[in-house]
Write a structure and sequence with these properties.
The complex is a heterodimer.
Chain A: E1 2-11, E2 19-27, E3 31-36, H1 42-49, E4 57-62, E5 65-66, E6 76-79, H2 82-86, H3 94-99, H4 114-126, H5 142-154, E7 160-164, H6 172-189, E8 192-196, H7 200-206, E9 211-216, E10 219-222
Parallel strand pairs in A: 3-8, 3-9, 6-7, 7-8
Antiparallel strand pairs in A: 1-2, 1-4, 4-5, 9-10
Helix pairs in contact in A: 5-6
Chain B: H1 5-30, H2 34-54, H3 58-79, H4 84-105, H5 109-117, H6 125-144, H7 146-154, H8 156-162, H9 166-189, H10 193-207, H11 211-236, H12 240-262
Helix pairs in contact in B: 1-6, 1-9, 1-10, 1-11, 2-3, 2-4, 2-9, 2-10, 3-4, 3-9, 5-9, 6-9, 7-8, 10-11, 10-12, 11-12
Classes of the chains: A alpha/beta, B mainly alpha.
């Protein structure tokens, strides 16, 4: 069964289509990269796949279920752009941030408890971030923030990991480290990965993919 | 000062507002929407004017106008995020413009003025009960939706995929914010409500190292500046809104001084 199945997708913010006849599929345990120039529609495609944008024509299915009808989102983990996380200006510790990934386990009162913090701390330690458990997330460098976000994404054992330009705006050393970590996670956990990045050369150097798609002017082709 | 009924009512209402408004403020500041509370406080004056002219409780008018405008702003922000700021400015201007006209038409200039800067003696039993109800609701929502509100401040997409019912949490929070701001205009004063929403949180943000710490410290500081402000207002016969805000400003200066002297902000790298 395909984890992601997009068929003949057409979407536009206005009457003009941003995505035209887009089709792609990603199998269980596969890794897929979507690349393209800035403004080509990569992030729009990602938003449609994640159910953020409605009003499209065609088929978008996750785990065999149309995205509009998918209720159990716990199998999907998402890492936003580094620039989004840079905007978190308020103090929240790394363990608070990671424990939010366990939201579905909080019970009726949505407050993280000791067992959630324990799991968050274990996830951070596993990722080599044990010493930042109580460090405010907003005091970390961009590279560290993205590694914490990977921890958060994985703390709930998802089946699909979606990353939107995770290395954009991060220094080169951190990019390399992050991509190496991602490749290791993919191998160790056999998790399906969908990565959106405009830095194909860099990404290819540090990760292997089962499929690479290029978006250009709203259309998609296999690279 | 506790020997007077009116003072006990004012203090009780003040404490509830001092706890609830910073709880709302934390979320608003984290989401960078604190000016929404300012816009709503201006709009509440329009409701006060309508209430005074039509002969019903001005607080009801304030709350109703705040609720309507809060959902309008949220609606614009959700559909056209790039116009979110503009909708806040439009609502604030429209609310204040109408309030100025209504103030001229409303009977008893002093009554209207008391809603501008707050009044220590005008809190009725009905005000107290309605404040208590919304206070309990605000504390309950802040607790039950603690993680959801934090996650929404981080990123909406992330929150939705984590399982946060984004529309529901946003809706409930918007409703409570509007009601609380509308109610607060009587004690704190419409022009000064935003101070109690933001200043205690701003103080807490200068020294806090976690979200939980920020929440607890904001509430404590809110209560401290409200109680000291109300006491100052009683003993020196000045408007409570002004004295509450001045005590909050003194606190923030102290906290900024502390942060400047003892806190070195630098990015942690690996």
């Amino acid at each position: 069964m395909n984890v992601i199945n997009v068929s003949d997708l057409r979407f536009g913010y206005t009457s003009e289509a941003v995505l035209r006849g887009v089709s792609l599929s990603v199998g269980e345990g596969d890794s897929c990269c979507i690349t393209g120039e800035n403004g080509s529609g990569k992030s729009t495609l990602l938003k449609v796949i994640l159910g953020e944008l409605r009003g499209f024509t065609g088929t978008v299915e996750l785990f065999g279920c149309p995205i509009a009808q998918l209720r159990d989102l716990s199998r999907i983990a998402y890492v936003p752009q580094a620039s989004v996380m840079n905007k978190v200006a308020f103090p929240t510790t790394c363990r608070e941030m990671v424990s939010l990934g366990l939201y579905g386990d909080f019970g009726f009162v949505k407050v993280p408890r000791k067992r959630h913090f324990d799991r968050a701390e274990a996830a951070l330690s596993e990722m080599g971030l044990g010493r930042y458990v109580r460090t405010p997330f907003n005091e970390l460098s961009g590279g560290l923030q993205q590694r914490v976000m990977i921890c958060r994404a994985l703390v709930n054992d998802p089946r699909l990991l979606v990353l939107d330009e995770p290395t954009a705006g991060v220094d080169n050393e951190s990019k390399v480290r992050f991509l190496g970590l991602l490749e290791q996670i993919r191998h160790d956990r056999n998790i399906t990965v969908l990565l959106v990045s405009h830095e194909l050369d860099l990404v290819m150097k540090h990760m292997s993919f089962d499929a690479i798609y290029r978006i250009d002017a709203g259309g998609i082709c296999r690279a | 000062m506790l020997e007077f009924d009116f003072m006990r009512r004012t203090l009780a209402a003040g404490i509830m507002l001092a706890i609830a408004l910073p709880l709302i403020g934390i979320v608003m500041i984290n989401r960078k929407t604190s000016m929404v509370s300012d816009a709503l406080s201006h709009v509440s004056l329009m409701g006060v004017g309508i209430g005074l002219i039509c002969g019903f409780d001005p607080v009801v008018g304030a709350v109703a106008s705040c609720v309507a405008c809060a959902f309008f702003i949220e609606g614009v922000r959700a559909r056209m995020p790039q116009l979110g700021d503009m909708s806040v400015a439009v609502i604030m201007s429209a609310g204040l413009g109408l309030a100025v006209i209504l103030a001229d038409l409303a009977p008893g200039g002093n009554t209207f003025e008391s809603y501008l800067f707050g009044s220590i003696s005008s809190v009725t039993l009905v005000d107290l009960v309605s404040t208590a109800v919304v206070f309990v609701a605000t504390v309950a929502v802040s607790t039950f939706c603690y993680a959801g509100l934090l996650d929404l401040a981080v990123d909406t997409t992330l929150a939705r995929l984590t399982g946060v019912p984004v529309s529901l949490v946003n809706g409930v929070f918007t409703l409570l914010t509007a009601i609380m701001v509308g109610l607060a205009c009587k004690v704190v004063g419409a022009l000064l409500v935003v101070s109690l929403v933001t200043l205690p949180v701003a103080c807490a943000l200068t020294v806090s190292r976690s979200y939980l710490q920020t929440c607890v410290l904001s509430v404590i500081l809110g209560v401290v500046c409200t109680l000291s402000g109300l006491a100052f207002s009683y003993y020196h016969d000045v408007r409570p809104g002004g004295s509450i805000v001045v005590s909050a400003v003194v606190l923030i200066l102290l906290f900024l001084g502390y942060a400047h002297l003892f806190r070195k902000g630098k990015a942690v790298t690996d």
